[in-house]
Amino acid sequence: MLSMLSGRKRFRELSEQEVLALAISSEEDDARIYRSFAGRLREDFPATAKLFEGMAGEEDTHRQMLIDLHVKRFGETIPLIRREHVSGFYARRPVWLMAELPLERIREIAGDMEAEAGRFYQSAAARTEDAETRKLLGTLAAAEAGHEESAAALAEEHLTEAAVAGEDRAAHRQFVLTWVQPGLAGLMDGSVSTLAPIFAAAFATGDTWNTFLVGLAASVGAGISMGFTEAASDDGELSGRGSPVKRGVASGVMTALGGLGHALPYLIPHFWTATLIALVVVFVELWAIAWIQNRYMDTPFWRATLQVVVGGGLVLAAGVLIGSG
Fold it and tell me: What domain range is 103 assigned to?
């Protein structure tokens, strides 16, 4: 009943010919996915690109073997049936959604693809009682196991220790350029630029709720501004800094969080309690930024301290003096 309502067949309802046709289309889809990975990775990760090109070639070989078996048993007309036509069948995420995934995640997806295909053939072979069909599906399961061995051999050939180390360095650099650098810039801007208005409002009014509203407005406004500025400043094509949307999100979110960190304590009604907690948060924020600069941007710690901690302290002092005046 559920399969009728969804317009899809259950796996156990497929005929032997449909199972074979499904295997053919699945091998074709996987080959295309591997070639898409190779195209995306060829420039920055050539060793892994060669790995995926080799795996796509293996899929082509298996597909041709499946076609030959279909022609022998059922003729040349192959039914049109794909993964999305079968209820509960394992699915593949669209390639364009996977285009921006990090290198290690792409390798994990490829491993999952092999494991899922292997389980498909094993399940199909186990459920049939027909000797000829069982033999056919067992052959397919064995072919998939051979594919995994071929993938391992290709990995040994192309993913040498030096190649993997080089690609990992490139992946780390891309992560820093796309996420860490704009996020750090946003965190610095949000933490430092909002110090003066928040503490000026606090010492000028002595009202924690109004101080929180000032901090909230300053933080959110700064986050929106920084996010759009970062996204519009560079499309990433020439600089290699990655997706402008990702950089904009990283910069905008971290800018807002940087300001909200010392605005949220003013939800506490008692003025001096809220102010002391906000000062502790500022202290932690500034030293955390200095550590991140040293850790990911290779900035000497003394220079990061001078830029962030001392500079932030001066902005904080200016806000307190203005508010007290």
Answer: 2-159
